[in-house]
Amino acid sequence: MFRKRYRQQIPELNTTSTADISFMLLIFFLVTSSMDTDKGLMRQMAAPPAEHEQPMDINKDLVMNVEIDAHNQLTLNGKVVTPAQLTEEVRTMASVNPTGHVVAVQADREATYETYFRMQDAVVSAYNSLRQQYAQEHYGKPYQRCTAEERTAINDRYPQRISEAPIEKGGRP
Amino acid sequence: MRPMRSMFHTRRHNVPSLNVASMPDLIFTVLFFFMIVTHMRSDEVKVHLQVPEGSEVQKLANKSSVVNIYIGRQENKETRKQGDWLVQLNGDLVKPEELPARIEQIRATMSPELAEHLTVSLRADRHTPMGIIQDVKQALQQSYALRINYSATEIQ
Question: Is residue A89 left, alpha or beta, with left meaning phi > 0 and alpha meaning psi from -120 to 50?
């Protein structure tokens, strides 16, 4: 008459293989994703020139003409320099006249990208060392640890005044 | 007293089984960490390139607004000869003249805030002639993609 009731225990789920499954997912992500952070030199280009825009007149003494010729020769105002010398020269110029000078850059179409990059690196290095020095003197800490406002102030003090020469189509052979 | 043989040979203890119930949780935590920290390799690089080295390189922040341009050469598998210089935008090979239109397309798919911070990561081979770089830069300038990141490895 009375059905005998067994208290049935719920069988436990076997979760041993969940670890394997999640391990597989983990390995999949490890393989497909790249850990490497993209590093590089950040540069801001000028907007394309407007049609009737007159080129700005700049005092010739304040312009540093950096050129790279077809044989990857780096010259500053006609003199052959190494990237380290270029850094020194730009540093000197920028510390004397932080907002007035211009580094005018021109590269031959046959020059290699590496030389160009080295040159950019050298110029940026000059500005960075000036900013670093300013941060140390005025805020007593390295540039990397300054706040955003302090950085803006420093950047305004030593702006990167690099001008890329208007790129000519065709260019020299 | 027990016989000698079983004095040393006592009852077999069962080794208690390890509770592995929390192991999946542990691994899932590691998995989520990786999912957040890394980003998927979105495009296959079709050209062969080696970026230059620099000392002043910075980390490129905000990956979602980055457009990748690769400049390099394709290696011929049979003759092992280097081919012509090629430009690759994100996933596919393009000509420098097509760049402004392509950039415009990409910009249209982005949200306005991201489009404002559009950055072009230029990954060019060390030996690329500047002529190609200049063509690419001019194309970018025309399409007002003015933030450029010259990709490089850091000199240790």
Answer: alpha
